[in-house]
Amino acid sequence: MKLEMIIGLFIFAVLVLYLTQFLIRQRIEKAKQQRIKALAEYKARREEVELKARRQL
What we know:
- The chain crosses the membrane at residues 6-24.
- Keywords: Membrane, Transmembrane, Transmembrane helix.
- This protein is mostly helical.
- It has a domain at 27-56.
- It is built from one helix and no strands.
- The longest helix has 55 residues, at 2-56.
């Protein structure tokens, strides 16, 4: 009886750890995608500004 409880708790702990790792990876991936998107938007805006500046010269 005690052994079964220990095994059950161990399995539960492992599942919780896997879930935690999965959620952390998801959050990191989401942050990475947002960073890539923000950088792309920044580059596009900078290019627009450069083009406008060249036209005014």
